[in-house]
Amino acid sequence: MNEGTRHILNRNIMIDLIGDEPDLIKQFEIDFLNQAKISLQNIADMYNTSRLHEIKEEAHFLKTSAKAVGAEQISHLLQALEVSGSEHNKPECRELILKTKVALQQIYGVISNDK
């Protein structure tokens, strides 16, 4: 899968996991957004205090949830952040954190625009 084919939010993932249950899917998406907001703040705090080794674990934790709800772009970014954190690559970590924030805002936009 290349960068152009990753979905902001691939709802087929959740449909495959739990069936066509729009209300339940929406709740999982909202729960993911809430979790992601906290995790991203934790990651930013770890970055700002030069605890890059801890970023790997937080990114992995959030990546698992992102995959489950079909947040393909953010899942890919978190995978890269896991590697970057484990390699203590501060400039790359910063870039990936900022891209992850943008991807999270895009997911919020998709969920918010649903009727």
Automatic annotation (TrEMBL):
Q: What organism does this protein naturally occur in?
A: Shewanella psychrophila
Q: Where is the HPt domain?
A: 21-115
What InterPro entries does the entry give? HPT_dom_sf, Sig_transdc_His_kin_Hpt_dom
Query: What's a single GO MF annotation on this record?
Result: protein kinase activity
Keyword Phosphoprotein included in the entry's annotation: yes
Q: Keywords on this record?
A: Phosphoprotein, Two-component regulatory system
The biological process GO terms on file are: phosphorelay signal transduction system
- Where are the Phosphohistidine modifications? 60
Organism domain of life: Bacteria
What is the protein name given in its UniProt record?
Answer: Hpt domain-containing protein
Which chain regions cross the lipid bilayer? none
